[in-house]
Specification:
Length: about 120
Amino acid sequence: MNARGALGRYGEELAVRTLAGAGMTVVERNWRCRAGEIDIVAEDGDALVVCEVKTRREGSFEHPMAGVTPVKADRLRRLAEHWVSAHGGPPPGGVRIDLVGVLLPRRGAPVVEHARGVA
């Protein structure tokens, strides 16, 4: 695995811990289909959460939360539809798309932000 892949995996681990700490249950990680990949699929009560994780080092060009452009948001919505279709339909609480941004400073603890319903 290259350095970028390792950075992404580390960010996903922190995201999983953050979501679990918020009371969510992770159902699947790195789900792939022809349309792309969902980083994390989780349950939040009776809602399904499709979660994109963006990890950046401090001093990067953009903040992790800026990583979801309108094009990426459209792709996440399509991926959510594919996942729901492949897994028996939507849950009673509907489907939500969240973003977890992870910022890794040069020193100190990572900063993890969780934004609900971003797309």
